[in-house]
Design brief:
CATH superfamily of the largest domain: f41 fragment of flagellin, N-terminal domain
Helix content: 25-40%
Distance between the termini: 16 Å
Number of strands: 26
Structural class: alpha+beta
Largest sheet: 5 strands, antiparallel
Shape: elongated
Amino acid sequence: MGRINTNVQSLIAQRVLGQNQNGLSTSLERLSTGLRINSGKDDPAGLIASNNLSAEIAGKNAAVSNANRADQVVNIAAGGITEVSSLLTQLQGLVTSSSSAAGISESEKQANQLQIDSILQTIDRISSSTSFQGVRLLNGNFDFKTSAVASGVSDYKINAAKFTGSTNVDVLVTASAHKGGMFLSFGAASIDTGTGSQFTIEVGGASGTRQLTFSSSTSLTNIAAAINSFTSITGAKASVSGTGIRLDATDFGSSSYASLRVVDAGNIANSGQEGVYALNSSDDAVANTTRVSTFAAASNTITKKGADVTATINGISTTATGKTARVNTDFLDVEVTLTDAQSQTLGSVGSHAFSITGGGASFQLNGNVDIGGKVSIGIQSVETTKLGTQALGYLNSLASGKANNVVTGSTDNAQKVIAAAILQTSSLAGRLGAFQSNTIGSTVRSLGVAVENSTAAQSIIRDADFASETAKLTRNQILVSASTNILGVANQSPQAALQLLG
């Protein structure tokens, strides 16, 4: 080599040294940060994937936090409901002990009434004071808000609903609800059992049976009155219709029924019309013209069961009990109780049964903020003006001077109101418990697994492999040292040309 202006070997050595120094710098950066990807140039596609996973992990961790917060909210609400349930049990005992006509003095009843008043005040206080961060939980704040309730709806309960803005609840009755019943035709306004004989029947319903005996010339009005005096025991009631008696179950639905067994028909005439008739299946306001049995042949119990309403809610087939239809989906869990007339009228219940305009306790339990990741549960009020039913009355009717107080009011109805209130609070407690166990619990567990898997995926993409990087560091250190030495040799090689000058 005789050229000194251009040292090609030195240029090559410089280039290789620069490459090796870049490799050494990269290894040092990765080992010092613990990350394989420190900037976009390291792995553009990997950086995008890693950032997306980071966002998903942050969202899932926030959802876990939301779920834990929801669990605490429900815990507080459930604690208040537990105390209300305990107070309702005390109410039940006070009403029962006050129901005796004898053996209890007026002053004792008044003392019991004072306890009842105190319990009712305590229930209202619990309703208004049970709160989370100042937000009351049991006074209806987290119940769903509705509007435009159709006249055919006697009661409704929204357990859960997911929607944006507002949503309509449409109910379509496809088959009527019925009470179990039958028609007893006697052909006259009173019975004629013949001389020396009596007419003995056993009337029954879902609550029990009672045997009654009537003598000749007893009017149908008196027979119906006798049957109705035991309605609370039997669950069946009677009404006079023309020359016969209509015997009905007190409630709608397949679990209710009316039954009749003729123990002794006496010598009641059988002209061809007397006997037991079923009600028309499509219109139970009238009886069938075909006789089921004569009175003499009705020694075996004749039972006529009712029917549950068949309906759809927002196009989804419902489960029904009597006049109440319920649908339970991921987006809507609602119960609708229809009026007597509406439950027996086929077709739509108004233009809409009602509209849900807002409310409910909503929690975001997914990293993606959308309706699919949101859950919403209704927490009904446990105030004394809300516990009970419209038909029976509400818990505040047990207060002094009200219709169901234990001093001058109806203790029978008071007990029914309390039973309805206990059922409501138990149902609410059960729903909240299921929400904690199934919805929140499973969400936390599934999100925990998702966070683990997403973090593992992000680690594979972005984290440095120390075993590999330390090996690269050692290699790059050796190469840099070698390149430096070679560069020194390459820089000295042009000096050999000076020897040509002597």
